[in-house]
């Protein structure tokens, strides 16, 4: 399969790396382009098997599946640019939540999907949120899902639910990291241990808790019940958390929904190596 990537920023380069990691080289050729050539050169220096295309048009012409991995402000411009080069048999996948499926289907002659990745795919884990266009057959949907299964757990969602779902699966890693960092920093302040030790304990705790939830069949309540033994100290800690957390996530979701209404997310400075 030849997979093309338009945009090799944070998500584009992550997806490339994840597919390379999860797929035998005999089954996969990757071709990619990026607006600033340095970023692409940096990627191909690390993964020489990635072929370089000069433009989005060339990427499309040389691929069967095309991932559009640009920011919301750039997406429609690129779609217009590649439009004449897309044929019926192409799969065109936007990782951008701002461009609507029916907008793309109205413009493009090919099969169209939206797939919202998550940084967790660096570890070939976490969820890809998937929305397939109306023109896709059951077999074509399964085909795209089977590629996503190599790097993630694909979950089909309604486009109308995308905002809140991507807050959980795609923004979630950052929200969780903020909370875990706060916990570690408090341990340094209150317990006098080193930051390195606090970070290690928190990270391993998070890893183990994630496994309980995803591999060992624990529900949130099971963990709470097993750890917060009656009359014990965890229960006292939970009493502190409850009033402080009440409404915090509602406020967070209201805020992200409001921000998402303004599709034009301002550009941010990123280091050249966007893979981490
Ligand atoms: N970061 C995350 O965790 C997640 C992000 N997303 C979504 O993924 C999308 C991309 O985000 P992210 O990877 O973080 O953004 P980045 O800014 O890191 O990457 C976007 C890349 O697109 C390139 N680009 C822009 N225009 C063109 C063009 N015309 N031709 C070729 N390349 C182009 C940019 O090039 P240049 O080097 O010139 O800037 C840049 O490298 C966004 O819509 C975001 O919402 C979805 C889920 C999770
Ligand atoms: O913060 C953002 O805009 C992107 C979308 C999902 C995760 N990161």
Provide the descriptors you would attach to this structure in a database record.
276 residues, alpha/beta, Rossmann fold, ProC C-terminal domain-like fold, 2 domains, eight-stranded mixed β-sheet, 11 helices, 52% helix, disordered C terminus, binds NADPH dihydro-nicotinamide-adenine-dinucleotide phosphate, binds (2S)-3,4-dihydro-2H-pyrrole-2-carboxylic acid, NADP, cytoplasm
Residue ranges: pLDDT <50 for 5 or more in a row?
A: 264-274
The percentage of residues in β strands lies in 5-15%
Write down the CATH topology of the largest domain: Rossmann fold
Label the structural class: alpha/beta
Sheet with the most strands? 8 strands, mixed
Radius of gyration: 21 Å
Shape label = elongated
The tally of structural domains comes to: 2
Please list the strands of the largest sheet in the order they lie side by side.
3-2-1-4-5-6-7-8
Q: Can you count the beta strands?
A: 8
The CATH architecture designation of the largest domain is 3-Layer(aba) Sandwich
Helix content: 40-55%
* Terminal Cα span: 26 Å
CATH class of the largest domain: Alpha Beta
The CATH superfamily of the largest domain turns out to be NAD(P)-binding Rossmann-like Domain
Mean pLDDT comes to 94
H/E element order:
EHEHEHEHEHEEHEHHHHH
Protein name: Pyrroline-5-carboxylate reductase
Function: Catalyzes the reduction of 1-pyrroline-5-carboxylate (PCA) to L-proline.
Subcellular location: Cytoplasm
Domain Pyrroline-5-carboxylate reductase dimerisation: 160-261
């Amino acid at each position: 399969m030849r997979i093309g990537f338009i945009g090799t920023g944070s998500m584009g380069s992550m997806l490339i790396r994840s597919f390379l990691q999860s797929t035998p080289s005999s089954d996969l050729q990757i071709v990619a382009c990026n607006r600033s050539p340095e970023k692409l050169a940096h990627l191909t220096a690390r993964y020489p098997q990635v072929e370089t295309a000069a433009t989005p048009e060339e990427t499309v012409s040389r691929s069967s599946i095309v991932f559009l991995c640009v920011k919301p402000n750039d997406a429609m411009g690129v779609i217009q640019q590649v439009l004449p080069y897309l044929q019926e048999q192409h799969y065109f996948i936007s990782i951008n939540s701002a461009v609507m499926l029916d907008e793309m289907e109205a413009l493009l002659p090919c099969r169209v999907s939206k797939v919202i990745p998550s940084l967790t795919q660096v570890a070939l884990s976490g969820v890809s949120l998937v929305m397939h266009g109306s023109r896709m057959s059951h077999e074509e949907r399964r085909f795209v899902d089977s590629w996503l299964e190599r790097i993630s757990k694909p979950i089909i969602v309604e486009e109308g639910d995308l905002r809140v779902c991507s807050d959980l699966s795609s923004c979630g890693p950052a929200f969780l990291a903020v909370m875990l960092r706060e916990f570690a920093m408090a341990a340094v302040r209150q317990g006098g241990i080193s930051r390195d030790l606090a970070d290690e304990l928190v990270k391993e705790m998070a890893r183990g808790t994630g496994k309980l939830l995803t591999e060992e069949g624990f529900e949130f309540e099971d963990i709470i019940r097993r750890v917060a033994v009656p009359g014990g100290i965890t229960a006292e800690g939970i009493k502190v958390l409850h009033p402080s957390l009440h409404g915090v996530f509602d406020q967070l979701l209201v805020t992200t929904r409001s921000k998402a209404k303004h599709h034009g997310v301002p550009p941010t400075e990123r280091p050249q190596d966007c893979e981490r």
